[in-house]
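Reply to dn_fold:

You asked what the input looked like. This is it:
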Amino acid sequence: MARECFTNPTNPYHYALHCISGRWKMVILHEVDTFKTIQFNHTRKVLPITEKVLSQQLKELCEDGMIDRIVDETKYPPSVKYVLTKSGEQLLPILDALYIWSIRQMHEKNIPIDTDAFAVHRSDKYLDELLDIMKEHGFQPNVEIERGQKGK
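and this is what came back:
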């Protein structure tokens, strides 16, 4: 599927969706924000995502200016990591609000919530907003959980 080219006047909502649409883009942005950098192979092991899809999503996030790809050629083989750009950092509070809204909507509509959703979003900004729902789902936020393991 071809990526959009924005040469004509564009609806800002369409542009925003263009930047974050894709099943894994918001998750990848959260990973980079949480860990400050990510590497392809480690992220591939942690997330249930195919190599092809991860590669494509990272490429598109780079093209859209949300993350930077940094190659350290002093190592062999060269080490590649991804970091948030200023634009990506500006987007994170919006994604946080959308995430909190989504959890509340799912809870109200009795849509099952993957407990991993609570395990990976453990900072105060989520706890302050979602502690009641976390507890109701049996999640104990003060228990340390390894990255990539389900919380309970």
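The two ends are 39 Å apart (CA to CA).
Hope that clears it up.
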